[in-house]
Amino acid sequence: MAVVSTPATLEHAVPVMDNAEVLRIRNDFPVLNQLVNGQPLVYLDSGATSQNPLSVIEAEQEFYEQRNAAVHRGAHHLAVEATEVFEDARQTIADFIGADYAETIWTSNATEGLNLLSYALSNAGLWAAQGRGDQALRGLALKPGDEIVVTEMEHHANLIPWQELAFRTGATLRYIPIGDDGSLRMEQAESIIGPRTKVLAFTHASNVLGIINPVRELTALGHAVGALVVLDACQSAPHLPLDVKELDVDFAVFSGHKMLAPTGIGVLYGRQELLDILPPFLTGGSMITTVTMERAEYLPAPQRFEAGTQRISQAVALAAAANYLTETGLDRIHRWEAELGQRMVVGLEGIPGIRVLGPAAGQERIGLAAFDVEGVHAHDVGQFLDSRGIAVRVGHHCAQPLHRRLGLTATTRASAYLYNTTDDVDRFLEAVAGVRAYFRA
């Protein structure tokens, strides 16, 4: 198969990755060097969970071998060293996304970050009703008549917390619809986002469609009416350069396990001035200044939102993952994955009975493709591919409303990363081409 050129919008003056470099990169990922059902593993499920390079595995192991102790809670040598590497990791991640140190909050994952934010906004209303906080806090409180706006393509993690916030506060949840090609109906967004909009939450890149949304345009619409803008960066932070200040969003979330790090670690970014007035979500130790038997006073961010024993080794490993991506070059990674994504879409569109979701070939997308095989359930497709050593994702990908809008209940999704080669994609396409014949569809 001929290599498909990258769309012009992705051309950058950066050194181009190629298969030879990717094969060297693969040596850093021990899990990829194995056989599955007698075939070399082709891992195309990084959109769900990525694999870990040796440097990340070793960073977490080294912490437990040399520095394991509670942070912020002791004056002994190990506790001091643990605290230093923990907070150094925070600075690394802040730099990675263009944020300030105190604007970077550890969470277990992006889902927790979004729930933290939605409950903090709920608590803003409770505090305001009880006379706690200042006028700025009262301005964050939602009430009946206010509106929360999301999009029709959201992952459940960026939909359900806002549904529940609307339920708790009496606000109304609205959404920006998509067209048949999966793109947002921006002409409707301009009328949906209005004076009553208090929160605008949307994904940077869709985990199903592969589409990259117009963040700056949406953010401008939200800020023009005084809304808080929340960005789900789970499918962008691992794959393309992310600068939250340049994008001008108020909050952003992403998960470590999608960007070469372990599970159990994620990040919530928030503007300092907003974090310092928001009430905390979890309460307890490590996030207080003074406690009496009647009430407590809370530290500023980030500790304000980090109650209890923290995810120390995971944070250290996430910083190692960020360094790995930075050293490889996120511009280069994005360009390579865009090429792989185009290769997937061109190949899939050429197979009879295949419907590809999202942008057509030649249009910008991240390195994933979700598709439907006529007459064959996605789970059967996934098992067929697994029998050939190819790992993909099947189901609704935590985006049931999006699938329903497109007339589907489930799809198969292949998602590439910096350790995938064009040969991986070609093996995948060759296998998909045999699915309908195998099942006599």
Automatic annotation (TrEMBL):
The keyword Cell membrane does not apply. It is an enzyme of class 2 (transferase). Its cofactor is pyridoxal 5'-phosphate. GO terms for molecular function: cysteine desulfurase activity; selenocysteine lyase activity. Transmembrane segments: none annotated. Keywords: Lyase, Pyridoxal phosphate, Transferase. Residues 42-428 form the Aminotransferase class V domain. It catalyses: (sulfur carrier)-H + L-cysteine = (sulfur carrier)-SH + L-alanine. Its EC number is 2.8.1.7. InterPro entries: Aminotrans_V_dom, Aminotrans_V_PyrdxlP_BS, Cys_dSase_SufS, PyrdxlP-dep_Trfase, PyrdxlP-dep_Trfase_major, PyrdxlP-dep_Trfase_small. It comes from the Bacteria. Belongs to the class-V pyridoxal-phosphate-dependent aminotransferase family. Csd subfamily. Catalyzes the removal of elemental sulfur and selenium atoms from L-cysteine, L-cystine, L-selenocysteine, and L-selenocystine to produce L-alanine. This is Cysteine desulfurase. It comes from Pseudarthrobacter defluvii.
